[in-house]
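Working notes for the structural subgroup meeting. M.R. asked for a predicted model of this chain before we commit to crystallization trials. I am recording the input and output together here so anyone reviewing the notebook later can reproduce the run.

Input as submitted:
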Amino acid sequence: MSKVKVGMVQMTCTDNKEQNLQKAIEQVRAAAAQGAQIVCLQELFTSLYFCDVEAYENFELAEPIPGPSTQTLEKIAAELGVVIIASLFEKRAEGLYHNTTAVIDADGKYLGKYRKMHIPDDPAYYEKFYFTPGDLGYKVFKTKFATIGVLICWDQWYPEAARITALMGAEILFYPTAIGWSTAQDEPTNTEQYNAWQTIQRSHSVANGIHVVSVNRCGLEQDGLMKFWGGSFVSNPFGTVLYQASHENEETHVMELDLKKSDRYRTHWPFLRDRRIDSYGQITKRYIDED
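Returned structure, recorded in token form:
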């Protein structure tokens, strides 16, 4: 299909896992009613962003994938005829956990999962305490409506991840996300951080000639100390922002993307053609020392 309608669900979450899941399902229905064919939910949408603290009881939020949440979403996907991108806390085995996104096709079939590769460890983002880095590599999923690539939050800062996923045939890059501002920060710092976040993802559109869809949560969490900045957006294959959500409000938005535009931009700006793959061996080094 050359055109596909993409739904983005930007919402607040509570400490009630079942309520969050049902809220997300309601918004998937709302997006489908607007014609959405692929619906992306934000990172770890069934809970608050629990990585603000290192607390062992938070491991109880995890579940197998496939598992209870994916089984519920499979029924919704089949009923509505939509693809669902669902970011969940995966319990792989006793003591082994991942930050994982499941992809469910429009007929309700579970297509597989991507495990977050880049795991941050910053104040209020203690993800290394919870998540083992992904070991499935980068992934694309051939859904009914498009071949999609899925990366997760911190992955969005790494051009290598976007490049590899695009080279695997992704027609759209999706980034389920949970990122915010400390409420103690000043507005210039907030603006600079958001602009950097959006700019790096728009650059993935430009470098790879594909649409990027980034879906972030919103609302106050961590006892009011963290404001998730929303600002979910879509950029076209040359980095133009086609839609941007507010920083404040829950929003479910549907946008039609013309996948044929990738060929137009890649033809006129042939970055893939001119890659010097014979010269990139050093990219696998941690740092290129002088000697």
